[in-house]
Specification:
By secondary structure, the chain is mainly alpha-helical. The chain has one domain. Helices cover 84% and strands 0% of the residues. The longest helix has 32 residues. It starts with a helix and ends in a 6-residue tail after the last helix.
Length: 58
């Protein structure tokens, strides 16, 4: 999921450099949403692991 956020971030940066403000803004918004969803899913997963009593597997 973070891969998609990074992809949209790169698209936004390229669009901004080329002068496409609308596309850059939209891509940046999508990247931001996907990033925060990934963070929330990670926190839920980590919390579930702690509640079940399993530590992180390294």
């Amino acid at each position: 999921m973070l891969h998609w956020a990074l992809t949209f971030l790169v698209i936004a940066l390229i669009a901004a450099v080329l002068g496409f403000g609308g596309i850059a803004g939209t891509a940046m918004g999508i990247a931001k949403i996907i990033f925060f969803v990934a963070i929330v899913l990670f926190l839920i997963s980590a919390l579930t692991g702690v509640i079940r009593g399993r530590g992180p597997r390294l």
